[in-house]
Every structure is written in structure tokens, then in C-alpha cells.
Amino acid sequence: MDITTQKRNAKQFIKNWQNRGHEKQDSQSFWLQLLRDVLGVEEPEQFIKFEKKVQLSHESFIDGYIDQTHVMIEQKGSNKDLDKPIRQSSGELLTPFQQAQRYANNLPYSERPRWIVTCNFIEFRVYDMEHPNSEPVRIELKDLEKNYYQLEFLVDKSNEHLEKEKQVSLSAGELVGKIYDELLKQYKDPNNEHSQKSINQLCVRIVFCLYAEDAGIFGKRNMFHDYLEQFDVRQMRQALIKLFKVLDTKEKDRDPYLADDDPKLAEFPYVNGGMFSDEDIEIPSFTDELRSLLLSKASDEFDWSEISPTIFGAVFESTLNPETRRQGGMHYTSVENIHKVIDPLFLNDLKNELNEIKKTKQLATLKKKARKFQEKLANLTFFDPACGSGNFLTETYLQLRKLENEAIKLIYPNPSLDVGQAKDIIKVSIQQFYGIEINDFAVSVAKTALWIAESQMLEETKDIFYADWDFLPLKTYTHIHEGNALTMDWNKVIPNYACHYIMGNPPFIGYKLQDVQQKQDLQNLNIKAKSIDYVTGWYYKACYFMKDTEIKSAFVSTNSICQGEQVSEIWEPLVKKFDLTILFAYKTFIWNSEAKDKANVHVIIIGFQLNNSNQPKILLSGGLIKKVDHINEYLIPYKDIFVSPSRKTIISGVSPMIYGSEPREGNFLIMSNNEAKNIASKYSELKPYIRDYVSAKDYISNKFRKCLWLVNASPKVLRSNNWIIDRLDSVKKYREKSKQKTAHAMASQPYLFASIRQPNTNYLLFPIHSSAARRYIPIGYVDKNIIASNACFTVPDASLFTFGILTSNIHMAWTKVVAGRIKSDFRYSNTLVYNTFPWPMPTDQQKARIEKTAQAILDARALYPDSSLADLYDPLTMPKELLKAHQDNDRAVMEAYGLPIKGTTESDAVAYLFKMYEKLAR
């Protein structure tokens, strides 16, 4: 369904359902019409299930469920407020979302929804369950004509053909891995650099031959198999050497008697393209097992023509040593994730442009527009400066050729009469695609993947014209360059004035994992920031390259660059120096791969351009799309702002937050409870010095340990106990061996923690690390005699008002944006999050209310003395009393900030806090 039709149908849908909406009578027809008329589902009755059973304490029914996209729908009548709790048959009061959550929690894991949609015929609320604590996307019925695309996640199911290609490609990768392993065993010196490069190149050649014989590139099927089958194990090596030489020799330059000596070898065409030009590669002897693997498993029993070059390139590269892969920071990419980059960067616009052309009624005008569109496609250039196995470039080439084939059908309405030569009809070429890759094997794989893609798309164009064009010899050459992208001059790969789009998935390497060369690479780019991820180098390099051009770029990046201190360190110079503008951004999600050893990392995608502040920006999360005026470097819809760490709180009078005490003692001062009990029993004189000890994990799980706290301990007591003397000697040796100078300095006082910051009053404990799955970070009051480790922060003598503010949704909103992360989990900071947090200025009445709601949270926890904070704050098991207490506290805190209780989203709250911060930080 084209865009114009969707908009027209959405407008009619709004008209049909204005001032209507009875929960029982209208729900099914409402959803069936939406799916059919607006979202283009041909048989919506087969697509959505109504009244799906779910077993609670009694049998209940889910209003709507879509299996293929894992969507649960909770429908209410137009007279119901989606924010207000509704009394259930059990007597509980639940909002529509909470009701749907309860249903979801009682479904089998395989059926639990990715999306929950609540609706009252007036408004849709969309909850992404991969981010259960994020605010829902709200879509009002009256705005559906312009926002219908935000509901496309309902029907965006994976393509069956793509799924088949994926499975074939994964199987092909397994075969390559087996061939690689068996070949490696036959090398005399497999660790030799020449042998390593040879086996990589040999695998590339074998894969090309396997694909070429199945895809008909060699002229007929099974040519590679039939040629090799003539030879026994001892002859296989020489047979391959002869074949590779023939494939690199033009027919006119070959031995004129070759057909007499070996007719099957003589039938092979000339390949060109440099794939077989290196005659110096080392090819080992074969074994019976290797011969059988190649001829039976890889050739006879497998059809290589159906692989996806995009996926297979990544899987093929996974035959590399895993350690090499880790050092290079490579994370392999699914087709779905590639489209998260290329769709908003350029592909959506190209598809929309073609759809508009197709509406042209007059044939001559239609052909003229289609030809102009084809020329546009043929003149676009794409550059991936960290291209790996070339999957971004390959998928982009495939998509451009598919669009070109659509245009060709419009240009040549009578294909059998219009047939010419491929070079006259096909304009898009792999010569439009440029890449840089540091690994030589990946360079070979990328070139091969592009050649395979070119072959497959030629077949699709041939089908349009019923033509018989030859693919070989290779007529186009790939611009994939081997080298370090951060030290190379990109203009020597492609001049910046000739480049349209930069894209890719540069390596993610945290500062601590970077080697000396990688750290030097960043310094050479004049990056002042420290402790930043290696991916940052590509942003700086791209900005230098993009200056004074209209190039648009998009990179997949580790999410750390838009979190914590890295935001101001990385982005502030880019914004000020280059006027960088974020065009679109994909918020944190898990980046899955198609590689054999899957690499799952938490990433973001950022599309950007220099000197572009006018066009609407797009913020994406899961399958949801939001158009906004501006996206800042925290990936929220607000103007550019950079929160920097502060040693003092920006609000005077706020209690300081300090680190807990750091042991740094090699576990000689820390003990388990059982060990401490035995020591206290055996040495009663040590009992006063054994204290409870708590880290963040200990506190949340309610599994405290013990420590030796020897502050002010009598030297006489210590010297008289051999057990403790041995312990202190071990601490001393541990600190002396440490590479850290501060540890060396403390070696002279082994009886003390390396740093002592223990409050002398009861204190509020704040875990530094906490799961993002929780709605609130579990904080609480702790006795002054319990020693807090440096995995916690403490707020000594904190008031109930302080507790209420810090455990509120407003403080959580600030934390989610400003704090650093480990994957998606919070890494709280006193200097960056707490000290910069804008506190409210409440009235006495508002403050008293917050103190009351804060105490109610503590009281609700006390109802479950056998439960840890991990139990209490698990979203699936959070008690209703505790949830209600938190919700009451949230409302009280919002009131203190002057924020409306109803209608204020998390983004609204963050924007409000940023405004406060700007004023306070001046």
C-alpha cells in the first residue's frame, strides 16, 4: 500500500470512529478495519486473535493478540481513562497497562508480548517491553493521518524469503568453518603469517567456486565438483593450483592444447577481478575427509545460490580466530539491523520517491521520471570506513538494484521487445560503493560478497527481459581498501565532494581494552577527551571529511558515547566546531549478529549531518518512530545541553553524597558470615572489630558479608593475635604488588581500608550499579555500624524528604539520561548525576507530603520482611502496596516541581529538569 492511500484511508478511519467506541460491541471491528484499511493487512481476521485465553486465578481473556509480531492489545471503551485504575473481578485496582502486564506474566515465555498496546478508541498507548520502564508512545486517533506509521510495528513481520536466505547462509557458514578447520590441520606451520593469509584467501576462492557453479556463473552447474572429482586425494592440491591459474587467464592466452589435456578444466571461463591473481598462496595437501567434505557436503548436498551475500559475508568472516575478532572490535550485523541504519539515512526517501513516480498516469512522463530516478540511483555513492565483511555496502547495493529493477519495469513496459545489453540497461554498479577495512581477509570477503550480490541482481534483471547475459568476466571492480581508517586519508579512497552517504558499524573498544596504537589513533585526531570508546574516532574523522559538504552519515555505536561523562567530552567539541546536527537516532537496543559466535552488545544508531538544523528529526525506539524538532546528544528531544561533573551540588544545602570505603586488600579483610562467626568464637578479643559489610549487590540481595574494621584498634590486641597478623601481612604484600601507586602508599597501614569514608551517623545507601529493568533504583537507610563499600554511595543523616526525592520517578528520569551505563544497567555517579540534579523548592506543605509518602514506601517494604530489595523491585513481583506507595510519592514530587500529574511524560520531565539545570549551572 502506497503512502497516499494509507493517509487517505487513515483520514477515513478517523472519520468513521470519531465519537464512537463501545468496548464490547466495537473493539473487533475497530482493529480489523485499522489493520486492513490503514496498515494493509489483506486478511486481518487471520492475522489477529480476539479473546485469547489466559489463566489467572480464574480464566480471563486478552482482548487482542497478534502472534506474528508479538503484540498484546488491551482495549477499553471511549469512556475510560487509560491512566485511571479500573476495579477487576478480583477486587484489585489496575490501570489497563497493569492489567495487560498481568496477562503477559501468566503467558508461556514463548508467547509473552514484545509490545503492549492500550487503547480507548481516542488514544493508543504503545509500550515497548524490551524497555519496560520507558514511557509509552501516545498516538491520538485525531492525528492518525500523519502518525499512522507509528503503528506499523503491528504488522512488521520478518520476510519469509529473508528468513530462508538467513538459514541457508548460516548453514553455509558452518560448512566454511569445517573446511577451514580441516584445511588448517594440513598446513606445515599454521601459525605462520603467510599460511594464515593463504588459508583465508583459499577459503574465499573455494566459496566463490561453490557459489559460481550453483548460480550458473561458470556456464553450467556442478562444473567445480565435476572437475575436482576426477582427482584422488594426492592430486587435489595440484588440481586446485591449475584451476586457479586457468580462472585468472583469458581464453586467448591459454595453452592451445589445454582442451586436449584436460577438457573439463578448459571449460572454465575467465573470471578477472583479481580474485585468482595471486599465485603465491600456500595450498596444503588434502585428506580423504577434506576431499569428501568439499565434494559431498559442500558441493553435492548444498545449494549456494540461495545464500544472502549480506548475511553470508558476516558468517564467512566468523571463520577468523575469535581472539582476532575480539581485538578488532567487530560485531556482525543482521539484515534487520542494517536497515535500522540505511532506512532512515536514505532508503525510506528513495522508496517514497519511487512510489510517487508510480502514480504518474501519462506513460511518456512516467518513463521520463523513472529514467531520471534510475540515473539518480546510479550517481549516488556510499562509503563505509569500517566495512568489515562489507555487509552494509552489500545490503545497500541489493536495495538500490531492487529499486532500479522497479524503475526498469517502468522504463521498459514491453521488456521482451526492449531487450538490449546489460551494460545499456543496468546503471547501478558496485563501483558506487567504497570501503576501508583493516583486516585483509575481511577485505577479500567484502569484495566476494559484492560480486555475489551483483550476480544475484543480474539474474533478477535478466528475468525481467528474459535475457541471457553473461556475468563473467567480472566487469566491475570494488573499491574496498585495506588499512586503518583512522590514519588513512579518506579523500584518497573517495573525494568528499563525490560522496553522498557514510555509514557503518565501526569497532566498539572501551578505553581499557584499547591497545597503544588505538589510543594513539584517537590522540592523532586531536580528541581531547579521555577514557572514551574507540568508535568516537569515526565521528571525528567523519566530521573532518564532511566539512563544507552535504554528506549524511550514520554509525552504529556503543551506547556509552551518549551516556555519562562521555556526552560532554565527545559531543560538545563536535557540535561547537562542526555544527553537527543529529538527523535521526535509534535509542539503546541489543545488536544481535548472524555470526557463529554471536556478539550481543547494547548499541545506539546516530545519523548526522553538518550545518543542518531545519528539517524534522526522527527518534526511534524499537519499532516506534517519533518526529521531533531537535535531538540532543543524550538522544532526547531537547536542545543541545551538556551536563558536566561537579564536585559540589548545584543546589546549596543539599546533603553531600560520598563514596563508601574502599578495601583494596585482596579479600583478607573481608569475610563470609560463617568465617566471621568462627573467628569471633575462636578469638573473642576480635569480636568488637568484626562489622557487617555491604556492597551494592549485597545490599540489593540482602546478603551482607563481614569485614575486619580495625579503625582505632589497639596495636596490642592486633600484635597478640597470630591469625590477624598473618592476615595483615597478606594485605601488605597484596598492596605492595599492586600496580596502583595509591595501593603502595597504603601498604604501610595494612590494618586499614585503603580509603575510609564511613559515616558516623545512619545513612542513606545508594547502589552505584543497578539493573535498568527496575522502575526505581533500590535505595534505603542503613545503620552507621554497617560498613559501606566503594560500590555504594552514602548520604549521611539523610532526611525522609531526601529519600523521597531520590526514589522518585523525576530523579529516575534524570538518572536514565545523565548516568553512565554498563550495557543497559545504571552506573550512578555522585559528581555527574547527584551533584548536578536540580532539586525542587517545595512549600512546607509539599515537603511534608513528600516526607509522608517516603515513609509509606519504607512501611510498604516492611510488610515483606523476608523479601530482599531485588525481590521487592522486580517488575514482575513488586507488591501492590509498594507500587502504590511509589506512585503516591511520584505524584507528590511532581507537584513539588510544579509539573502536571496528568499528561507529563518522562521526556517532558527531563526537558523541565534541563531548563532548571541550565539556570543553576550558569
TrEMBL record:
InterPro entries in the cross-refs: MmeI_C, MmeI_hel, MmeI_Mtase, MmeI_N, MmeI_TRD, N4_N6_ade-DNA_methylase, SAM-dependent_MTases_sf
Residue ranges of every copy of the MmeI-like C-terminal domain listed in the record: 844-921
Pfam families hit by this protein: MmeI_C, MmeI_hel, MmeI_Mtase, MmeI_N, MmeI_TRD
Keywords of this entry: Methyltransferase, Transferase
Catalysed reaction equations from the record: a 2'-deoxyadenosine in DNA + S-adenosyl-L-methionine = an N(6)-methyl-2'-deoxyadenosine in DNA + S-adenosyl-L-homocysteine + H(+)
Domain MmeI-like DNA-methyltransferase: 365-618
Domain MmeI-like helicase spacer stretches: 198-276
This protein's name: site-specific DNA-methyltransferase (adenine-specific)
Transmembrane parts of this sequence: none
MmeI-like target recognition domain ranges (all copies): 639-840
Biological classification of the source: Bacteria, Bacillati, Bacillota, Bacilli, Lactobacillales
GO molecular-function term, one example from the UniProt record: site-specific DNA-methyltransferase (adenine-specific) activity
EC number: 2.1.1.72
GO biological process, one term: methylation
Record domain MmeI-like N-terminal: where: 9-186
